[in-house]
Amino acid sequence: MDELTAKLLLLRAPITGAQWFLLHEQFGTANEFIQAGPSAWNRCELSARSIEVLSVASESLVVADINWLESDQNHLICLGDQHYPPMLQQLPDAPIGLFVSGNIQLLSMPQLAMVGSRNPSHYGREVATAFAKHLSQCGLVITSGLAEGIDVASHRGALDGSGQTIAVCGTGLDMVYPTSSKALAREIEATGALISEFPIGTTARKYHFPLRNRIISGLSLGTFVVEAALHSGSLITAKQAGDYGREVFALPGSIHNPMAKGCHQLIRQGAKLVDSAEDILNELGPLAAMASSFRTQRQSSSKATDLQANSDMVLDKDYKILLDALGFEAISIDQLVERTGLKADAVASMLLILELEEHIVSIPGGTYARAGLSSVDA
């Protein structure tokens, strides 16, 4: 039996990270350990279930995995390997192995998890996209779970930004769940990565998704919950992040929006309230300096060109109406609502997008003004 086959068989036995390292310390390779038989497995304190699985394991079980791994873009990384994500390896329940399709280097880069409702408001979806785009351009890899709603919006935003995003899947990587995310998954493979701890051929099961969520939070420096109802899976991901000693961020919303109640609960429990991308960058400690430096270099390459690019950006009708209503003077949201006839929540959402795209600047006191107009017009 070759080493790859032996590793793939071990992944099917419920063994812990400590057992994984112990068997390698005592036997050197996974193959030597499997060949040693039940007495050796007992010495490494494998459970009765693990021994039962290994006793009947055959190479035919992993043929699909091996065939999948023949593609150059597909990889298997195990605990202790060079490319195993360092943040994830810190977890007491880190997965023994990860199947990866795409850019394996991203797994070791600084990541922000973005999660939320599968049925978000228009505002929540728009904010997730805008934040993910901006933060990815600041040097963060955006990590999420490929689910409908906030997950998809976050991946889309990152693809529109740096293109660097990781989708953690609750199935084997030969399939996509939900099926509505198939096209998105292919886009992520091209510039980002899909990962899963589940072998090829594994279908979606309800209990897979809490396991997937621990990987999402475990990979990341922090978890940002955009919209979530009470008792949602996103709150479980946030709790896991807190248990792992990672930062937890939450976006406040309307008291009338049931999808904001979970975020409000997180904020009451100590999550960082977020109303700008800088809130996240500033809280991530040393990473903020790296991200700010990246952003400064990107923006300072040609200030005049950047301003012109911003002025030339195509905006839809409502955004143009809002931008036209802004002048050189500071103006409040209430004044903009009066000038434009747009709803207050829509104005608030669009202002965030315009600020992230550097069309406008926020001014202390809750007012806004156009950015760089005098330079562009000159």
Poorly predicted runs are 294-314, 373-378
As a percent range, the share of helical residues equals 40-55%
| Number of continuous helical runs | 20
Through-space gap between termini = 73 Å
Q: Descriptors for this entry?
A:
single chain; 378 residues; alpha/beta; nine-stranded mixed β-sheet; three-stranded antiparallel β-sheet; 20 helices; disordered C terminus
Explain the overall architecture.
It contains 20 helices and twelve strands. It has helices at residues 3-11, 17-27, 30-36, 38-43, 48-56, 63-68, 86-89, 122-137, 150-160, 182-191, 208-219, 233-243, 261-268, 277-283, 286-300, 303-312, 317-325, 333-340, 344-356, 373-377; strands at residues 74-78, 97-102, 111-115, 141-144, 165-168, 193-196, 222-225, 247-250, 272-273, 331-332, 360-363, 367-370. Helices cover 49% and strands 13% of the residues. The longest helix is centred in the middle third of the chain and has 16 residues, at 122-137.
